[in-house]
Amino acid sequence: MNKKYYIIDFDSTFTQVEALDELARISLQHHPEREQIYKKIEDLTNLAMEGKLSFRESLAGRVKLLEANRDHLKQLVKHLKKLVSPSFARNKKFFQQHAEEILIVSGGFKEFITPVVTPFHISKENIYANTFVFDKAGKIVGYDEANPLSYEGGKVKLLKELQLQGEIHGIGDGYSDFQLKEFGMIKKFYAFTENISRKSVVEKADHVTPSLDEFLYLNNLPAAISYPKNRIQCVVTESVPETIVKQLKKEGYALKQVNKLDTGNIAKASILVTGGKEKITETLLAAAKKLKLIAYLGNASKHVPVELCTAHGVIIFDDIQKPSAVLKRITGFINNGDSFKSLNFPNIQLPEVSDVHRCIHIHRNVPGVLANINQVFADHKINIVSQYLMTNTQIGYVMADIHADYDKQLLKALKGIDETISFRVLY
């Protein structure tokens, strides 16, 4: 089987920020002209990332302006460890299982990259970056100018020297990452936009990945969540406060804001956030074939056909107003299957678990369904680690945590059980 390698950028990809920009804010915090210098450094960063200035010129200019030392670097590392991109932070399993195939390739510097990425099981031998030059007092006075990564096209030159034998994929936010594809060094280039989206880079990418979750999903790699949030459409009506809209955007959902609901704009929605006496009619509900959740900022029982939602497997959370509470209910259900404080589902709240798959089965509440679910697991030789069942007068809500890897036949069998309303897999 052809071996695969994953070339990952550091600044604005592995972390949410450009490290040299952050180092400047630390080293120059007491400088009288710090704001002007910050601006110069940020401009040099962006010009290089957009391919409008050679990387060599950008790097030399930024290092010259830093006035940083080893103590500043220690502060920077502590800062960067708190700013690992969220989708990277939650996917340590991927890094652990593919440690030998993952390479961090960056125009940044090993002095701050190495201590940030090694806790993710990435070996020092697989970290390729520049190195600083210090004077006797520990002040940064330059960098190793012989390092290929200090030059324009340095990533291309490095990969030519490495001569990796296999299929190579690249993930990054900048022009230097795209150059790997441009010069034929990698099979696919994924523009990473979780932190910043550069038009000149996005336009040239094989695929735009708003998070690492999306990349892992596309490549069938181990992931913390089973389905990327950027693929989950969340429709929000105009009655929803902007604070809630911002929270949902930050969480990574594909957000669609509408003035008024109609059968067209609700058709692909998985999540609906509304209120202000907005009425959800039976016609709208029938059109919303993918709908899983309604978050209603008010009394939903007066404006939503509750029993019909339950029959369709659509959970309802109502009388929630605080942005944090709205996000907690939505995220708890999407990520973990929690139905706690819902209007129409049996209330279940479970801890997150690791190293298992969580299967969620919603069915009409009739005798024998749980036995049929367990029979399917037994037929596929799947061991159940833990299982939970709650019912109300209409539906049964089953969660089963299983250890073994599963195949599509198992999913097909679970979906095919009589009285099934919906089924999905988490983790």
From TrEMBL:
Its EC number is 1.1.1.399, 3.1.3.3. Residues 56-83 form a coiled coil. InterPro entries: ACT-like_dom_sf, ACT_dom, AHAS_small-like_ACT, D-isomer_2_OHA_DH_cat_dom, HAD-like_SerB, HAD-like_sf, HAD_sf. GO terms for biological process: L-serine biosynthetic process. Pathway: Amino-acid biosynthesis; L-serine biosynthesis; L-serine from 3-phospho-D-glycerate: step 3/3. One of its GO terms (cellular component) is cytoplasm. GO terms for molecular function: L-phosphoserine phosphatase activity; magnesium ion binding; NAD binding; oxidoreductase activity, acting on the CH-OH group of donors, NAD or NADP as acceptor. Keywords: Amino-acid biosynthesis, Coiled coil, Hydrolase, Magnesium, Metal-binding, Serine biosynthesis. Residues 358-427 form the ACT domain. Its cofactor is Mg(2+). It catalyses: (R)-2-hydroxyglutarate + NAD(+) = 2-oxoglutarate + NADH + H(+); O-phospho-L-serine + H2O = L-serine + phosphate; O-phospho-D-serine + H2O = D-serine + phosphate. PANTHER family: PHOSPHOSERINE PHOSPHATASE. Catalyzes the reversible oxidation of 3-phospho-D-glycerate to 3-phosphonooxypyruvate, the first step of the phosphorylated L-serine biosynthesis pathway. Also catalyzes the reversible oxidation of 2-hydroxyglutarate to 2-oxoglutarate. This is D-3-phosphoglycerate dehydrogenase. It comes from Chitinophaga dinghuensis.
